[in-house]
Design a protein that fits this description.
Layout (H helix, E strand, L loop, with lengths): L3 E4 L3 E6 L11 E6 L1 H11 L4 E8 L2 H12 L7 E4 L5 E7 L5 E6 L15 H4 L4 E5 L1 H5 L1 H17 L3 E5 L9 H8 L8 E5 H8 L4 H10 L4 E5 L5 E5 L2 E5 L13 H14 L4 H15 L12 H7 L9
Parallel strand pairs: 1-4, 1-8, 2-6, 4-5, 8-9, 9-10, 10-11
Antiparallel strand pairs: 2-3, 6-7, 11-12, 12-13
Helix pairs in contact: 1-9, 7-8, 9-10
Length: 317
């Protein structure tokens, strides 16, 4: 039985050895990244039983990712290695303030070989949440929307909640294409984890109250609006809560913070916490992620979050 299942691409991420424009960077450190994978790692480190459905290239990078993910305690029985499809890559540019850009090299992504028929219904049995993002359908929208819709249909049949983070990557598709594709399954979503900009693309509104009302009209039960250093706003069962941000020690790298927030929010939902406690927990994880360089290196273990929240003592010696 799994607490969480997610489906999507993974990449080898090359982190710059120095900050500033990428054209001046001389060397990079090899890491592992990808929105859905970061989420899975975040969940696993919090102690959730997590499964990941994906395809990787049958190359050295793909094998490295597979071993890395297995080492995080994530079930990889539905991850395949595909011959003739190179494992996806990205190169990161990180500026002095922690902001940055991503340069993708993911043509012929191995995940384009993942078909609707490849989804095993038994894999979803007795699980609790299916988490999807807008990244996987953006890679091959003509086909991957069908895969997502099939996964949702299986999950609904098995009684799973559907969690969705739009994660709209405009380097992969246009605003119009994203809105059209996501509209096909947005009414099936139970938990929406979105930023304001993404909500404006999908729903046509940017004010938190309007985002909540539009989402409620679609039948979405849980709504979390991520606002970065402004904190987050959540809605569930008639209650709307504003949770202030948690100030990080230092902003080093903002990549992965949203994925960490998502993992924390899902953890709170699965443990039936109050909305306020869930948002505070998720905000805390987000602040911890930005303090560490890398896509998922900063994703904390549960005990680390509890220490940060003052609920557990830290013993250093």
């Amino acid at each position: 039985m799994k607490d969480v299942i997610t489906i999507g691409d993974a990449m080898i991420t090359f982190n710059p050895s120095m900050k500033g424009p990428m054209k001046y960077v001389q060397s990079f450190d090899r890491k592992v990244g990808g929105a859905e994978l970061n989420f899975a790692i975040g969940c696993a480190r919090l102690g959730l039983n997590t499964g990941w459905i994906s395809r990787l290239g049958n190359d050295e990078f793909g094998k490295y990712i597979l071993n890395f993910v297995r080492g995080e305690g994530i079930d990889v029985s539905e991850v395949g290695l595909e011959v003739g499809y190179p494992t996806s890559l990205n190169f990161k540019e990180i500026m002095e303030d922690g902001s940055g850009r991503t340069f993708y090299y993911r043509n012929q992504s191995p995940t384009t070989t993942l078909t609707e028929d490849a989804l095993e219904e038994t894999y979803f049995k007795d699980s609790k949440v299916l988490h999807i993002t807008g990244v996987f359908p953006a890679i091959d929208s003509d086909k991957n929307i069908g895969v997502i819709k099939r996964a949702i249909a299986i999950a609904k049949k098995q009684g799973l909640l559907i969690s969705f983070d739009p994660n709209i990557r405009l380097k992969l598709w246009s605003k119009a294409d994203a809105k059209k594709a996501i509209a096909e399954f947005l009414p099936d979503v139970d938990i929406l984890l979105t930023g304001v900009d993404e909500a404006e693309i999908l729903l046509g509104v940017s004010e938190p109250k309007e985002i909540i009302e539009k989402s409620k009209a679609l039948g979405i039960q849980y709504i979390a609006i991520k606002q970065g250093d402004k904190g987050s706003i959540g809605y569930f069962d008639g209650e709307c809560i504003e949770a202030p941000s948690v100030k990080p020690k230092k902003v080093v790298d903002t990549v992965g913070a949203g994925d960490g927030f998502d993992a924390g929010f899902i953890y709170g939902v699965l443990h039936q916490w109050s909305l306020r406690k869930t948002l505070e927990f998720a905000n805390t994880i987000g602040s911890m992620v930005v303090s560490v360089s890398g896509d998922n290196e900063g994703l904390p273990y549960l005990e680390d979050v509890l220490v940060q929240l003052g609920e557990k003592d830290s013993i250093e010696r």
